[in-house]
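Structure first, sequence second, as always.
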């Protein structure tokens, strides 16, 4: 599968997932906004981890975290340019 195809598939799946997560509020109607938000975050985290495991991309995440650990100041400057 080419990089373009992967990007298109990821975009389609993210839009579908966004729509499903919007419906969470209706499905969990007796719950308050905070509880629905918490469930949305938990489910998004689980789906993210599942996606990383299925695509065998988890090693890339850990490599990025190691790279951040080596040079935290440079990462912070590039991530938050308005602070510096």
């Amino acid at each position: 599968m080419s990089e373009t195809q992967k990007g298109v598939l990821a975009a389609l799946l993210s839009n579908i997932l966004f729509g499903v997560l919007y419906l969470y509020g209706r499905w969990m109607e007796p719950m308050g906004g905070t509880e629905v938000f918490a469930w949305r975050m938990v489910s998004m985290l689980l789906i993210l981890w599942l996606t990383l495991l299925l695509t065998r991309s988890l090693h890339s995440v850990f490599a990025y975290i190691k790279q951040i650990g080596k040079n935290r100041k440079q990462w912070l400057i590039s991530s938050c340019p308005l602070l510096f």
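Margin note: Helices lie at 3-27, 33-54, 58-70, 72-79.
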